[in-house]
Amino acid sequence: MALTPHDVQRIAMLARLDLSPAESDTMLTQLNGFFDIVERMRAVDTTGVEPLHTPLSAVQDVALRLREDVVSVPPSEAAREANQRSAPALADGLFLVPRVIE
Amino acid sequence: MSELHTLGLAALAEGLAARRFSSLELAETLLARARAHAGLNAFLHFDEAAAAEATRAAARASDARRAAGQALGPLDGLLIAHKDVFVTTDFPTTAASRMLVGAQGPYRSPFDATVVERLQAAGTVSLGKLNCDEFAMGGANEHSAFGAAKNPWDRARIPGGSSGGSAVAVAARLLPAATGTDTGGSVRQPAALCGVTGLKPTYGRCSRHGMIAFASSLDQAGVLARSAADCALLIDTMAGFDPLDSTSAEFAGTEPNRPGLIGAQLAARRAAVADPARPLAGLRIGLPKEFFGEGLAADVRAAVQQGLAQLQALGATLVDVSLPRTELAIPVYYIIAPAEASSNLSRYDGVRYGHRAEGAKDLLELYRKSRSEGFGAEVKRRIMIGTYVLSHGYYDAYYLQAQKLRRMIADDFQAAFQACDLIAGPVTPTVARPLGGGSDPVTEYLADIFTLPASLAGLPGMSVPTGFGAGGPLGLPVGLQLIGNVWQEATLLHTAEAFQQATDFHLRTPEGY
């Protein structure tokens, strides 16, 4: 099943990307070339096979480890400054974004 | 001492311990070399005076510790550098992407990656950050937003990717060793194409905390150096459980996953050698027939076979095995990795750090314009593939099917390991191709066929220089790939070390370096 220009636009919208008409054309050709090789994969019978989401679980038990939901680094002005020093726009220690609510 | 750049990690450690030279002298020598060979484009953000000063300050601190008799261990004062996907406080971090260069300049991390922190705690001095493919996506280092790195064996050719800057720096003797990361072969491929030794450890061996995520179930930190012994020195310090990474393994087999474990296991292997002329006696090496079929260039095949004959001469037994889903590894990987990448890269939205587009009227436009301007073509391509295969109605057909096949690929390895202790084959189908010679992305993806299966299965792999193929003034390097079962890094390192004691391919230096 080949992708259409409409599919590419839809995927770009979901991916939060704007593609120029030239980029969309190239992307369409490349994605269709790519999905040609993927078809071989889809043809394999995998009935009854468990998906392998993390590789070590193929050979040993792997448990998802979660930390306690607590503040582990004490809040401080210095930590906030370090965390925000690469921010594009700030005011009063807050990240600025374009207006969201009119 | 003008010849300091010719020495590997172990020799430099010995020289520092004997006080024949200082860490600062080593740093000055290598800073000067990096500057003299800036045309290789191995380093990023290199010209900043503050970066050089951070290097000198760390070297002086190491010298002061040594003078006070308080050296931290064998790595204290040694110069290395980190692939630009490890976040660092001393240097900017960009993952070779314009997305991480904002109005304030390149991104500055408030913390160091665990791998970086461990190496610094052992006294290593960093020379800066190394070029790579953007967000580690690529096999040629041609997808860096700051230009391709050049292969020192022939500057008109690719070094391989994505840890290309790391491989170039080690091959051109700008550094004795460097960190890299391997998602689908990104340590092993550039190591092979630049003639250096590279190790990708078992998934979960090294912490991913502070390593900019590409594909979380595949990414693993690795090392590139001149020899297996030098790789062992670094990985032994970097490895170990980290509670800050939820995918970090608490146990490496039956032993707690800790720094020092690989070194101890390697020492035990060295000590168990009964006949020094046949250090690999008893070792069974499996040769998957799928790794030696059509598509493998004749010069690469010849060099790999020469390497296998050498392993046999050292006492190893070669056995035939099969990895029947090898070809499927390409579509499986190129579904799973972009799917995870599309999720991981959603954090780059122009709000908290990185590039922000000018003049966006609302939040959605801010996201779309910032991401479209910040990401390069290969990254966009993979985000698009990943978004598509995870989208409603396609998840089962692509992503879930790929994860099931991933299980079958991993099972094929376990079946093969019934007949052998490790697996050997080529790393890449050809020697380094010319820069700009990539025909299309799909062809480029096909070149990953020998490295992807081990990545999908989370297995440790190495690339060891095994000879030279056609091209360049001296011939172009060829790598021999060794793949072990999980947690078998010591077996890989011991095999590679024995190989390097019997050969000198890893000691050859490109002309002019």
TrEMBL record, chain A:
Any Pfam family hit: GatC
GO process annotations (BP): glutaminyl-tRNAGln biosynthesis via transamidation; regulation of translational fidelity; translation
Keywords: ATP-binding, Ligase, Nucleotide-binding, Protein biosynthesis
Gene3D superfamilies for this protein: Glu-tRNAGln amidotransferase C subunit, N-terminal domain
Record field: catalytic activity: L-aspartyl-tRNA(Asn) + L-glutamine + ATP + H2O = L-asparaginyl-tRNA(Asn) + L-glutamate + ADP + phosphate + 2 H(+); L-glutamyl-tRNA(Gln) + L-glutamine + ATP + H2O = L-glutaminyl-tRNA(Gln) + L-glutamate + ADP + phosphate + H(+)
InterPro entries in UniProt: Asp/Glu-ADT_sf_sub_c, GatC
GO molecular function, one term: glutaminyl-tRNA synthase (glutamine-hydrolyzing) activity
Enzyme type, top EC level: ligase
Entry EC no(s): 6.3.5.-
HAMAP family in alphabetical order: GatC
Protein role: Allows the formation of correctly charged Asn-tRNA(Asn) or Gln-tRNA(Gln) through the transamidation of misacylated Asp-tRNA(Asn) or Glu-tRNA(Gln) in organisms which lack either or both of asparaginyl-tRNA or glutaminyl-tRNA synthetases. The reaction takes place in the presence of glutamine and ATP through an activated phospho-Asp-tRNA(Asn) or phospho-Glu-tRNA(Gln).
Family recorded in the similarity comment: Belongs to the GatC family.
Subunit field text: Heterotrimer of A, B and C subunits.
PANTHER family to which the protein is assigned, alphabetical: GLUTAMYL-TRNA(GLN) AMIDOTRANSFERASE SUBUNIT C, MITOCHONDRIAL (PTHR15004)
Name of the protein this chain belongs to: Aspartyl/glutamyl-tRNA(Asn/Gln) amidotransferase subunit C
Organism: Aquariibacter lacus
UniProtKB/TrEMBL annotation, chain B:
Keyword field contains ATP-binding: yes
Record field: catalytic activity: L-glutamyl-tRNA(Gln) + L-glutamine + ATP + H2O = L-glutaminyl-tRNA(Gln) + L-glutamate + ADP + phosphate + H(+)
GO cellular component: glutamyl-tRNA(Gln) amidotransferase complex
Domain of life of the native organism: Bacteria
Principal EC category: ligase
Residues at the active site: 83 (charge relay system), 162 (charge relay system), 186 (acyl-ester intermediate)
Enzyme Commission number(s): 6.3.5.7
InterPro entries in the record: Amidase, Amidase_CS, Amidase_dom, AS_sf, GatA
Quaternary state and interactors: Heterotrimer of A, B and C subunits.
Name of this protein: Glutamyl-tRNA(Gln) amidotransferase subunit A
